[in-house]
Amino acid sequence: MTLFNAVDPFSATIVGFGVQTLLVSSEPTHGPVSRRLSGMGCQIEVCDELYFAIDRVLDGPQDFELIVIDCDSIGGLAQGRRAHMLLKATGRCLPVILVSSECAEQTFPFNRYDATELRAPLSAVSLRVGFEHALQERLLMARAS
Questions:
Q1: What is the dihedral of CA 86, 96, 37, 131, to 10 degrees?
Q2: Cβ(94)–Cβ(57) below 8 Å
């Protein structure tokens, strides 16, 4: 994926490739969300149980850069928000994208510690915008180097 710098429109920074992503979903590993994430260059690990995924983030050997939670498959938007709050309470402030059909509107928070919320069914465009928003700090780091 290529992100364009709004200050200098003639330069671009490549980000997104190789992003270690944890997808929490009961969909198969070749489902639509995982296909779209892998199409953007993410390295995906799929967990189908929410608390195992949280444990995987906290104690696993791999450091994830992004967590995508399919809230409809784990019990709803409230359950996804609760999982995000548990992660924040442990001090692991990772970018989180919550995908739910319960979202009245998509949210892109200003605070980097809040979750990006996207409506389901997830389109490629909304996932890309949510992905870019959640990983905007990675863009800044890439631009600085």
A1: 180
A2: yes
